[in-house]
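INFO  loader      accepted 1 record
INFO  loader      residues=577
INFO  predictor   begin
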Amino acid sequence: MNRMVAWLALDGSMAKHEIVEACPFNTPHWQPDYQAICVEGGLAMSATQRFITPQCAAGLMPYQDVSSGCVINADVYLTNREALCELLASDFQTADVILLLRAYLKWGEKCTRYLAGHFGFMIWDPRHQHLFAAVDPFAQCPLFYAHLPGQLFIMTNEYSPFYTLCPQLTVNSRRFVEFAKDVHSASETAYQEIRKLPAGHQLIVTAQALHQTRYWCWKSHRQTLAYQTREQYYVALQQRFEQAVQRCLRRIGPLTTQISGGLDSSAITAQAALLLARQQQTLSAFTSIPNQLIGESYRAGWYYHELPRIKTLLAQHPNIQHIIYTAAPNTDIFEKLKPLQRCFDQPLRNINNLDWTLACYEQVLAQQGRVLLIGAGGNGTISWAGNSIVEDLKAFCVALKAKVLLRRHRWIRNSHEAMLSGRLTAPLRASVYALQLWYGVRRLDPTQELDLSVFCYNVPQWVYRKGKQTLQQRLLTREGLRNLLPEAIAQNPYRGEQGADWYLHYNHYCQRWRDELLTLTPEAQTILWQSYDREKIMGLFDTYPYLSQPPDRKITRDLCLQLLRCLSMGFYLKAFK
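INFO  predictor   done
INFO  writer      dumping C-alpha cells
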C-alpha cells in the first residue's frame, strides 16, 4: 500500500524535494515502513509505503530501473503474479511493483492487458519524456490528476495534496448538485481542475499533450463457455473461487474477513478458513450486530442480523476466531471522519454504514493485520440472481414510458454487466478508498477477482436461476458452493440489514448536526442549498427530533437518502480550501 504523489513540470522548469515534502500523509493509525522522494529533472515523486505482502520490502518506491532510467510509483496488489512471473522470467518473490515495471519495459503501453488485481501506477519514462499511468479494470486503486497544459501535471491517489500543490481550485458546483441527485461521475471531482482516471483507463502525459485511452472493455471478453450442464458450471466455479480466495491470502500478519451471514461473505470466510487450516493458521471473522435490534426488519424478507446462521458456519470451522461488534450510540461518525475530509474527492454517500466499516478496519489493526477480505462485489458475480427475458422487457417498457412522459429515468441496458463490472459504484469507490489508506488496511474482494469475474460474465443466465422464487435464484452460489456453506446459509431466503442502528447515532447528535449546518460559511451554504432544498432539509429535523423505535421505509428514505447525505456534503464543504 502506497500513498503516492507525482509533480511534473511541463514548462521545462526543475523540480525540488520541497514540492512534495509540503504535503505529508499524517495518519495516526500507522507509521510508514518506508518513504522516499525521487527528483528527476522536472519530476518529483514521493512514496509513503505500508508493506502489505512479504514481497513489498523488495520493491521500495519510487523504484528506478537502472538500465532504462524509468521510475515507477504504484499502489499495487497483483492477483496473477505466478503467470506474470513466468511471462517475464522473474523470480516468484519479485515485488509486485518491479513486476509491473518489467511488464511496461517489455510490452510498453500494452502492459495493462497482462495485469490483474488492484493497481494504480505512474511510470516516468525518460526515453520518451512521458508519464504513463493506469488504474485497474475496477478502479480499486484510484488516481486523481490536475493538468495545466504547458505548465504542470499533478497526480496522486488521495485528494489532499491538491490543496497544497494546485495553484488554483474552482468549485465544481454541478458535481454537488449531481451528488444530491445520486448521480456520480467516473471522471469529475469536487473541483473543476481535478479529474480522476476512470476504471480500466490509462493515460500518457507529455509536455505537449495528455492522451487518455480505455484499455479494458467487458464486451471484448464475451465468449461461449464449453460447459453443458449445471454441474459442469458448478465444478468450474468451485475451482475458480478457491483460486480467487487463495490469490488474496498473500499478506503480512493475520487475516480478517467480514461475515454477515449472507452467501458471499460466508463463502469467502469458509474458503479462507479451509485454506488457512491447511497451514495450521487461524482466521478472524468480523460481524457487526445492530444495537438492541433482533428479528425481522421493517423490510419484508430482511432480518436485522443473521447471527444464528453465522454460528452454523463457525461450527464447521474451528480455526475461525469470531469477533462481534455492536456500535455505541454516542459515536459521532462525522467527528471520526473530520481529520480526513480533505482526502475525499467528494462527500461520502452511505454515512449510515460507515460506523461498522471503520470499526472493522480498527479491528484488523488491533489484530496486527493488514488485509481484510470482503464480498461486496458478489451480487454481480458469484451470487447474481439471474435475468429473465420478461424482466428485461419490463425494464425496457418502464424506461420507454419515462422517456415519453419526459421523466428522468436511468435505464441500464445490461444490468448483469453493470453490476458485475461495478460501473455504477466505481465512482464512489474512489472516495471510500481513502479510508483504506488512512487505516493502512488493504481491502480485497475475491468475488471481483478478474478471472472469476470474466467467468461469471460468460455464465448463461439459466445457470443462475430456475424461476421467480428466491430460492430458485442465485443458484451459482447456492448450489455451486454448497460444499462450503451450511444448509442454513445456502438455502436462506432472507437477507440481512447493514448498519440498521444508525438512528441511535442520529438521536444523539441530530441537534448538534443541525446547528453545525447553520454555521457553515456563506460560500458553503450557497453550494449546499443549490444542491438541496433548504426548507425541506431543515424541516426533517423538526419532523424527526427523536426516533423512539427502528425507522420504517419512509423515515429511512427521508433521513438516510436525504438528510445524512446533505450533512455529509455540508461537513465536506466545511473542509474546503
